Amino acid sequence: MGLRLPTSTSFKPGHVPGNAVLTPQNAIDIRKLYASGWTIKQLAAIYGITSTHVYDIITRKKWKNAEQQATS
Prior knowledge:
Elements: H1 24-35, H2 40-47, H3 51-58, H4 66-71
Helix pairs in contact: 2-3
C-alpha cells in the first residue's frame, strides 16, 4: 500500500519545522489508514502523537496542505 511509519530519517529539509513529529507524507498516510479502518487511538499510538492531533489531521485542521507539501 506504500504507507510508511514515521522514522527519524523521513523528514525532508525545507518542508518540516525542526520540532515537528510528522512529515506531510505521514499526515497523508494517517488519513489513508483511518479511511481503511484504523482507529484514531491506534494511529495516535503508532505515530506517537495525541488522539486530538490525529483527529485534527483527519478533519484537516492540521496538515491541510500535506498533499502539496509532499509533492514539492
